[in-house]
Amino acid sequence: MPREQIVVGDCPQCQGVNTTCKYNRFESEDLRIDSWEHKCPDCGHRLTTAYRSDDEDTLVEEPMLCPYCGRRAGV
Fold first, then answer.
1. Can you give the pLDDT of all 75 residues of the chain as single tens digits?
2. b/e string for 44-60 if b means 16 or more Cβ within 10 A?
3. CB distance 36 to 49 below 8 Å
């Protein structure tokens, strides 16, 4: 499962400077899940989104783009 995490900057809740952006991908024969998380280690503020290839309601053109900061996953 490809996974990567980088520090992206300020927290919108406490203005801490170490908010991380984490990307995970799970793949099997007929399913792919791309998930994103922004989390502040100082106050615990967290945003998460996941895209499943088998869910027609959440299909997006670019599941490898973070919905919070716009960075592209490097995997």
1. 467 899 999 999 999 999 999 999 999 999 999 999 999 999 999 999 999 998 877 677 889 999 999 999 985
2. eeeeeeebbeeeeeeee
3. yes
Q: Considering its fold, how many domains does the chain have in total?
A: 1
For residue 44, being part of any structural domain is answered with: yes
**39: which 2 tokens?**
């989390």
Q: Say what the pTM is.
A: 0.86
Q: Would 69 be classed as within a structural domain? A: no
In a domain, 32, yes or no: yes
* Residue pointed to by tokens 């027609």: 56
